[in-house]
Amino acid sequence: MKITPTLIKIISYFFVLLFVYAAVSKILDFENFQVQIAQSPLLTSYAGMISYLVIIVELITVILLVSPQLRTAGLFFSLGLMTSFTVYIYMILHYSDSIPCSCGGILEKMDWDQHLIFNIICVVLAVAAIISTS
To answer: How far is CA 12 from CA 35, 43, 51, 129, 134, in A?
Structure first.
């Protein structure tokens, strides 16, 4: 089933809101974000680099998504980010002895299992939008 161009725009702007919110939240509380990444048993060694890289990639993704000519690339970036975050959450839940602090803002109201489900839904939305743009 193909998704309409209007629904593709809605999905794209959902990701714009999600990634702008996420990036701004991280920037406004950058020191805490770095500390949380450093506490992650999977990311400790790369916390400094990852803290900057995640924000930069989120903002690049937003720029791609708002441009009609680059939207498909933005959807691929969205898929990559959401897949990475989903795999990270899965690994933390199933293979880590300690679970670091949750995300900030709206998503901090979710537990890790709910966050995993939210991310899986986002992955499905990105895949559906990408398939429909081809």
So the answer is: 30, 29, 24, 8, 15
Cα 76-118-65 angle, rounded to 5 deg: 30
Tokens at residue 19, please?
A: 């990634």
CA–CA separation, 30 and 119 (whole Å): 22
Let me know: does 123 contact 84? Beta carbons within 8 Å: no
Question: Digits of tens for pLDDT over the chain (134 positions)?
Answer: 578 999 999 999 999 999 999 999 889 988 888 888 887 777 777 778 898 999 999 999 999 999 999 999 999 999 999 999 899 888 888 887 766 655 556 666 778 888 899 999 999 999 999 999 87
Q: How far apart are CA 78 and CA 19, in angstroms?
A: 9
